[in-house]
Design brief:
By secondary structure, the protein is α/β, with parallel strands linked by helices. It contains 6 helices and 5 strands; from the N terminus they run βαβαβαβαααβ. α1 links the parallel β1 and β2.
């Protein structure tokens, strides 16, 4: 009981119909991360499929307080996924996730049911391998250990994505790249040039420069891959 296993979209009801939540650079620490994790683990946010708990490098410049999850907060969020099969995307860039945090996410994404190292947050529940998450984002790194964990997580995410049927994949794609944001992104990309027909007036094209401030960000086509970038949101 209490596990979030109601299918894509959460089956309605619950606290709200919100599918995406951004709490980036909100001063979140392990305690707040634990509150979010428990809600995810117990199905209290049934429609929620994407959360951004990362931070941005410019946060201090606008008096925003960066999130710092640490090992404890990272592990709690990872454990929440053991009893949630509707959640799809978690952005953690620049939020203080150590290598042990990456190892926690790998544990829940690549295990045999009941055989992982981490227990679920819901007492008495079976810690099933998470098969719903298709996107995670972390900080870029040159650390070799972190690189090994990243590659293993990427493989697990890709496996989850490829197992989706066509209808579910379309729904997931809409969550990860909401169609209603396309006009906003186009204005940002073209410096304010956007027409009502939805066409870029001065699109840089495939070979164009990345948006200003996005240096070091790795852009991916499609999903099912661990993404990383300086901004923690790519």
């Amino acid at each position: 009981p209490g596990a979030a296993r109601s299918g894509v979209g959460g089956g309605g009801g619950g606290a709200s119909g919100v599918r995406s939540l951004v709490v980036a650079a909100a001063g979140m620490g392990p305690t707040a991360a634990g509150t979010l994790a428990n809600a995810l683990a117990r199905g209290e946010l049934p429609s929620l499929q994407s959360v951004d708990v990362g931070s941005q490098k410019m946060a201090p410049a606008v008096d925003a307080v960066p999130n710092h999850l640490g090992a404890e907060g990272s592990e709690l969020l990872a454990r929440a996924l053991l009893t949630n099969d509707t959640f799809r995307c978690l952005k953690l860039g620049l939020s203080g996730v150590p290598n042990s945090g990456l190892a926690a996410f790998l544990d829940v994404l690549d295990r045999e049911d009941g055989e992982g190292q981490l227990p679920p947050l819901v007492e008495g529940a079976v810690g099933r391998r998470n098969t719903s998450v298709v996107k995670l984002s972390f900080d870029p790194t040159d650390d070799s250990r972190r690189g090994v964990l990243r590659d293993a997580i990427r493989w697990s995410l890709r496996r989850n994505y490829l197992k989706l049927d066509d209808e579910t994949r379309k729904d997931v794609d809409d969550v990860l790249d909401p169609p209603h944001l396309a006009p906003i992104q186009s204005v940002y990309r073209t410096g304010g040039n956007y027409n009502i027909l939805g066409e870029d007036v001065a699109s840089p094209g495939a070979g164009g420069d990345a948006p200003e401030g996005a240096e070091g960000v790795e852009f991916h086509d499609g999903h099912g891959a661990l993404e990383e970038g300086e901004e923690g949101d790519v």
